[in-house]
Design goal:
The protein has about 550 residues and is an alpha+beta fold. The chain folds into 3 domains: about 70 residues; about 240 residues, FAD/NAD(P)-binding domain (3-Layer(bba) Sandwich); about 200 residues, no CATH class. α2 crosses α14 and α4 crosses α14. The structure holds flavin-adenine dinucleotide (FAD). Flavin-adenine dinucleotide binds next to α2, β16 and α14.
């Protein structure tokens, strides 16, 4: 009997293997090393063609940097369920972000028709409006970094990691993205990332695929009203242009910046509730500095990309600060959706080769904070939206208009004062040296104080993090939706407005591209299940 058969390969689980940066790391070399070091069971050495690389991660700790691989049994690619020609009464989907598009895609896999409506424009036309935003400070309330084809995910950092543990569902989303033109590396990278130069093509391919099976996506279609049937069920929508789209149910996947859409749902009878969120600033460093901190003497090694980081500080009272949506080699962009407000966020290209690293640095805002400020009594579930707006207006005023952003060096911020000069930045509309602490204090919440305390701790964790070359840029107010649109746990419909399926980040069920896409697919399955139940009952 050949020694290779003496091992039941089915019993060989994933093989974890670390390699030094200068070692070869193609599959052959990895299997050689696995055999040499005994990680690969002896008898399995001849069955090399049955293995593949499952994941690749960079493990950087205290200046020692290694690549961490997991090898595993090659799986015959499970055939993806393809969308098929759709038929029947359509589901009306508001929003062509990840949640709306993946909802339509999953419905099409079941052959269920949908019409997708988005207030924004297709990716190419949208790009021109983004230019207007960054170069001239003009905010188009329907076409910006948050609104338009692909939603807030299109011109973003495009990182695809999620805290979700539903591995099968995450894999499904990533595979669909690869099928529509995303780079296959995202199937194995532990921190998958696409980048804003590639995302628009992926989003377009997804929309074209939907069109082929009979699912249209209408742009320039801002929904202003929900349509209900005689039983009071949501069955359709009206747009600002007066067009009506009616079908079997309505999925609202309008994202965390469409506060007008929250009011539309409330007017039709949906219950809303306030939820905790977070606000703060963006911090920017030279990427070379972050690389040195994270990679030590290995910084600049060709196998290493721009280094990410993550920081978090939780003091005894539980109210600390944490980094959010860190963008290595990225740009800070103006993500406002309303004139007179300033919001910053981060994006990057696939190469992540800008000389800057930026990250949100935010502090949690709890429901008790909104109550203490009297906002809950005044505005009910929209209290958090008002707080976001106040901060955004204060940021806009401190920047002096034109979407210039107020900025303070980390060293000055920690000392509780403004800066008179600020370093060069990736933020194209420009920075204004200011006192960002005072801007944060306009909320009457101790956001600045919390950030100050946290920065001192972060500087100890990552030496130089709060140094002269680090600049805080305001304001980061839209980390997640401050409002939830509750839904029934099993039907996923609004308990007070049957037929309405609140979906994605804007409804409070996702935080990021992948989780929004997964929520869209989950909602689609709930709509299909409701349809089958109705069919059985008939
Ligand atoms: C600059 C930036 C960078 C980001 N980087 C990342 C990242 O790297 N990784 C990550 O996971 N997440 C990132 N995010 C967050 C991520 O984009 C969102 O979590 C995700 O897009 C949410 O998906 P969604 O489909 O729920 O909503 P959205 O993507 O917000 O989509 C909502 C859509 O609804 C449309 N809409 C709104 N109101 C109406 C209306 N009344 N009528 C018709 N249409 C309407 C909008 O035009 C929009 O297209 C980033 C966000 C921004 C702004």
């Amino acid at each position: 009997m050949s020694p290779d058969r003496s091992v039941d390969l089915a019993l060989v689980l994933d093989l974890a293997l670390d390699v030094e940066l200068d070692e070869r790391d193609d599959l052959d070399a990895l299997l050689d090393k696995a055999a040499r070091t005994g990680v690969l069971p002896k008898g399995a050495a001849g069955a090399r063609d049955r293995f593949e690389i499952k994941s690749r991660a960079v493990d950087a700790r205290r200046g020692r940097v290694r690549l961490h691989y997991v090898l595993g049994q090659r799986e015959s690619a499970a055939a993806q369920v393809a969308p098929r020609q759709v038929a029947g009464l359509p589901v009306i989907i508001v929003g062509a972000g990840p949640a709306g598009l993946f909802c339509a895609y999953e419905l099409a896999r079941a052959g269920v028709a949908a019409i997708v409506l988005d207030r924004g424009k297709q990716v190419q036309a949208r790009r021109r409006d983004l230019k207007g935003l960054t170069q001239h400070g003009i905010v188009d309330p329907d076409s910006n970094y948050c609104f338009g084809e692909g939603g807030a995910g299109t011109y973003s950092d495009g990182k695809l990691y999620t805290r979700s543990h539903k591995r099968g569902d995450v894999r499904d989303v990533i595979e669909i993205l690869v099928e529509h033109g995303a780079p296959p590396e995202i199937l194995v990278d532990a921190r998958p990332h696409i980048g804003s130069n590639r995302l628009p093509k992926v989003v377009t391919a997804l929309r074209e695929h939907l069109a082929q099976v009979g699912v249209p996506v209408h742009f320039g279609a801002r929904v202003t009203e929900l349509v209900r049937d005689a039983k009071g069920h949501a069955i359709g929508v009206r747009t600002a242009a007066g067009e009506e789209f009616v079908g079997r149910a309505v999925v609202v996947a309008s994202g965390h910046s469409a506060t007008d859409m929250l009011e539309v749902q409330a007017r039709a009878g949906a219950r809303l509730e306030a939820k905790p969120f977070a606000m703060g600033v963006r911090i920017e460093h030279p990427q070379a500095m972050i690389d040195r901190i994270q990679y030590g003497k290995h910084a600049g090694h060709p196998k290493l990309r721009a280094a990410p980081y993550r920081v978090a500080y939780t003091p005894a009272d539980g109210r600390g600060a944490y980094s959010f949506c860190m963008c290595p080699g990225g740009w800070i962009v103006p993500a406002a959706t309303e004139a007179g407000g300033l919001v910053v966020n981060g994006m990057s290209l696939s190469r992540r080769d800008s000389p800057y690293a930026n990250s949100g640095l935010v502090v949690a805002v709890e429901l008790a904070d909104l109550e203490r400020l009297g906002l809950t009594a005044q505005l009910g579930p929209m209290a958090g939206v008002e707080l976001q707006r106040r901060l955004e207006r204060a940021g806009f005023a401190a920047g002096g208009g034109g979407l210039r952003a107020p900025a303070t060096r980390a060293t000055d911020f920690v000392q509780g004062r403004g800066s008179s000069t600020v370093p060069a930045s990736s933020y194209e509309p420009g920075l204004v040296a200011a006192d960002l602490g005072a801007v944060l204090d306009t909320t009457a919440l101790p956001l600045a104080a919390r950030l100050r305390e946290a920065l001192v701790v972060f500087d100890r964790q990552l030496r130089g993090y709060a140094s002269e070359n680090a600049v805080l840029i305001g304001v980061e107010s839209r980390t997640s939706s401050p409002v939830r649109v509750p839904r029934d746990a099993s039907s996923l419909q609004s308990p007070t407005l049957p037929g309405l399926y609140p979906c994605g980040e804007g409804a409070g069920y996702a935080g990021g591209i992948v989780s929004a896409a997964m929520d869209g697919m989950r909602v689609a399955r709930a709509v299909v299940a409701a349809g089958s139940r109705a069919g059985e009952a008939a």
